[in-house]
């Protein structure tokens, strides 16, 4: 058998956007569930932070796959004012524990939000390349702890 698979760079893309008016939390949850199914099939991983006003999302995977996915996401009417904060090549997928992890109630975690936004209001368009990644990392840590708690309580 020939070893023919071409090397494909892995990229990590972070963008912010505004939630379209009228989109409910239930609709956002449904969107995440669908994204998880799609991403699993594409070996895409990532994390989504949201409140009622803004999305901050990281998607990572093979370069061509991420380009195609981001084109789809950009055309989605469930959000607008999409701004790419960072797109870079990486050695490994950083959020590989999640096909799409999500924290949809960012405002309930003021201890983290206050550390990034002096006025205490989550507005991801104000984040830099570095701070956007740090913000998502901190929320992904919460998600791990929550999952661990869930697993602990289930096993009792
Ligand atoms: C904020 C936001 C994040 C999204 N993230 C993803 C994602 O990670 N993966 C995905 O497949 N679709 C995501 N979508 C949905 C896509 O825009 C699109 O609806 C979906 O990929 C279409 O899937 P389908 O071709 O299987 O119907 C997202 C949409 C929004 C508004």
From TrEMBL:
SMART domains: BLUF (SM01034). One of its GO terms (molecular function) is FAD binding. It comes from Shewanella woodyi (strain ATCC 51908 / MS32). Coiled coil: none annotated. This is BLUF domain protein. Residues 10-101 form the BLUF domain. Gene3D superfamilies: 3.30.70.100. Transmembrane segments: none annotated. InterPro entries: Acylphosphatase-like_dom_sf (IPR036046), BLUF_domain (IPR007024).
């Amino acid at each position: 058998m020939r070893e023919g698979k071409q090397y494909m760079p892995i990229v990590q893309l972070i963008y912010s956007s505004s939630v379209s008016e009228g989109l409910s939390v239930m609709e956002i949850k449904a969107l995440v569930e669908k994204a998880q199914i799609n991403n699993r099939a594409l070996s895409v991983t990532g994390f989504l932070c949201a409140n009622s006003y803004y999305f901050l999302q990281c998607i990572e995977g093979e370069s061509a796959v991420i380009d195609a996915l981001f084109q789809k996401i950009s055309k989605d009417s469930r959000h607008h004012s999409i701004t790419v904060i960072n797109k870079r090549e990486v050695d490994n997928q950083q959020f590989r524990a999640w096909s799409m992890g999500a924290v949809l109630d960012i405002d309930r975690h003021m201890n983290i939000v206050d550390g990034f936004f002096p006025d205490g209001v989550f507005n991801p368009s104000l984040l830099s390349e570095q701070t956007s990644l740090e913000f998502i990392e901190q929320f992904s840590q919460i998600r791990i702890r929550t999952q661990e708690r869930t697993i602990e309580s289930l096993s009792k």
